[in-house]
Each structure stands twice: as structure tokens, then as C-alpha cells.
């Protein structure tokens, strides 16, 4: 083990302790993949032990770096590996808790690796060692891919583009030097990242010097829609499932573009500002990880991100979220998926005969038994409205963005609990039909209404001063619509049960904006082009209220696209 001479007793203790911590950390890290992906309590103590060991390991190598360098032969890429593992730990802790501050912690470690060039000398350092250089190169490539995901989620787009260029160069070096078997896979990863970034860049908000401004769309005190003072908060959003399976939509790292947008919509902006963080001191996990164990103190609702789940997987996660739902808690299920048409257009059985949405395209058990007609078989992984009926025993807020969303329109209230369904339009104008890879329009409205408004008006570039002026109109709309909700006498009671929660109120008000924009826009002609809510929102009190119409048309005038919108009461507006 000794690199430089014979070890004395104290040096041997240091090296042995380091080797022990290193081995222990690897064992615990590898055990993370065996933990259940659902539930709250089953995994938390294991994560805590893993963090404890990595904290000790990181501090230990800092305190004894000279001995470990000279006597153990510690290399910079090995330090980078430890930092990378801690970055992964924080990222996975974010995924499990939904707390965005852990994304910032992950970023700090990944950023330190790059700024200190821990991996830059990997090939030189280990040209004579037992470690295979191609394996080190793969570690470096994986690090880049993970760092890019974290930066995307934190909207650090300039850094993302720098990292993509660096990753492209690293892949070129790797493939030209070693001609590896996974060459095509890494080029596919690179292609996915580039396509994702391009598809997400729908509207270009520019500064006075024409440089692009990156905007965050998480919830902040500035964009939280106002609530009536003294209004009771009946329910709070506690559990979220975000499901994605759109065949034509771009995706990266198990996230479709719709999933990526919706998860940000359902998070608060991270509290910690990393712009002034100093990286000349190695970052280390500094605070107690269990501060978010107390669910009442949590900033964000807990969420599951499910990319192409099978029916069995989706049902398992639904059951877990249902079980974990506390008293006065609500569950939100968001599904962005391709439609699966039913066998009957007119039926008394809305639970299954109208089809649903396909959450996974995997084919299982397609061979029909003797005597059974193939036409009777239904899609294995189609989620039907009836599949969700058992979960309406507790408050459920459902969002379906699909070309068969109408299958969920007749949801019965079987258990008397609050239930709201927000359903996307099933059609878009022909001019937008080849844009599916850029995400669905309904989700874009729920994510950033002004961006969606610009998109349907074919506005690509917008100065930041004009954007801010338009955003004031959006804020005005939200405040006015919020008042109308509170005053409405014909409003189903379910809505007011959910309205006290900041996130659910935001989604309801953005739904109303989406409806009014599309019903007034001349390019959207007919009921299948408009979103639908269940129970129905009152048209005269909310959906077609003159004050809301006026704000939307004023917004169109500010953007000089008033001609794209009809006058209220014109014949081509179909209520």
C-alpha cells in the first residue's frame, strides 16, 4: 500500500481508517439501489447512515491529505469519485424528498469536481496503475451526464451548454481512443441532451444587449396567486405523482419535457442562493439530513416521477401515496401520455369502455386464450378512469394531458371526497401538430402561461421589458380570477376544498387562463380544442367572465397580436 517509504504506526492507522471508510461507503452506496422507491420511512435511516459515512470519509481525506497522497497514493480522480458519490446522494435525496435545497447541495459538489479538475488527469495518473483507463473515462462521462441533469433542474442553462460541449469532446476522445462497445449509447445520450435543450427553448426572452435571459418557473412569493385573507385552508397538497409516456416527446434521464416542466411548477424556488458560493474550500454535507423528516416543515409536497411505468408499477406508487396521505392532505396525479381509445363511443360504463391513457408501451401476454376474440383484449398498460376509482376515497386532484383526455370527463364522486379533474384539449391546430416533441400545450400553460400565450401567437423573441409588462397582466388575471372563485355561488364545493393550497390554486387559475386564451384564439375552433374541467366550472361566474376576457385581450394588444383573437360573442367562439 505504501507509495513513499515505510509507514510508521500513525500513518498506518490513517491509511487503514481511510480504506475502512472507503469500503464502508461503497457498500452503503451500492445498497441504495435495493431500497424501495416508494414510501417515506423505509429508506430514510439507511440514507442517514450513508451520509454519515461519506461525511466522515470526505473530512478524513481533507485532514490527512498529505499522508494519503504520499503513503497511500491517493489520486485526484479518486477524490473526485467520492465527491461525485456525495453529489449523487444529494440528488437522490432530492428525488425522494422533493426538497430543492438538496439539488443545490448536489450542484456544489459536482461544480467543485469540475472547478478543481479532479478528473482531468485521470488518464495520465493511471497509465501505469491497475485501474483500466476506459473505466475511468466512463466514470467521467457519467459524472458529466449527472451534472447536466442537476444544472437543467436548477435552470443553469449557460453552464449546461458549456457542459454539453465538454461532454461531446470527452465522448469523442473516449470513442476515438478505445473504440468501445458503448460508443453508440453515449452518442445517443448526447443527442438526447441536445434535443431536450432545443425543445425546451420555445420562447427567447432577451435583455437590452440581445443576450438570452433564463427565467425560473418555480413557485415564489412573487408569483403565488393571492388568496382571500381569512379564507379557510381545507386541504394541502401532500403527495404528487408525475407520469410521462408521450411517444414523440423528447426526454432525457427518465424525464420527458412535460414531466420536467410540471415538476418545477410543483416546487418552490430553492432558498439558498449559490451565485456567491465560494469553491476554494471543499464542500461537505454540513447540516442534519433529517430536518425534512418532519413533514409539517416541508417546503414542497412529496412527489414521485414515473417515466413509462407499467400498470403494476403505477398502481404500487398510487397505493403508497394514498397510504402516506396525512389527514387534510390531497393527492395530485398528473399524467402526460398518449391516448388509448376504448371499444365503445356510447356506453353506460365510463369506467373502462372509453379507454384511457397508455403509461407504458411494453407488450405483455398478447397471445389470446383459445376461444377468446382478440378484439376483446384491452391494452395491458392503459390507465382507465375506473382504475382510479378506489383512490377517490381521499381527496384527489387529477390532471390529464392526452389526446384521449375526455375519457376522464365523467368521473363519479363515489365516496363524497373532494375530486377535481383538469383535462387537456384533445386537438391542436394543424400548424402546431408537428411540434409534439416540444411538449404539450396544456402543460405549457400550467407551467408558464405567458410562454404558452406567446407560443400560440407565434412569438419567438420578446424583450425582457415587454415580458415584464405582460407578466403584470398575467398577475392581474390571477388576482381577478382568484376573487371570482371565492365569490362564485355555482362553484362545486370540491374546488374550494383545494383552493387554499398555493400549488393547486395556481393550477386552477392557470387552467382558467388557458381556457379563455384558447376559446378567444381564432386558430382553436371547437370544443375538442379547449380544456375541460370536472366538475364543470361555472361559465358566467368564471370561465366567460367579461373582466377576465378583457385582461386577456389587453394582453394580446400589448403584444400586438390582437387580430388573432375574436371579440367576445363572435360566432366562432363555441362555449
TrEMBL record:
From the UniProt record, give one GO term of the biological process aspect: DNA-templated transcription
InterPro entries in the cross-refs: SCAI
For this UniProt entry, the molecular function terms from Gene Ontology, in alphabetical order, are: transcription corepressor activity
Protein name per the record: Protein SCAI
| Organism for this UniProt entry | Patella caerulea (Rayed Mediterranean limpet)
The organism's taxonomy opens as: Eukaryota, Metazoa, Spiralia, Lophotrochozoa, Mollusca
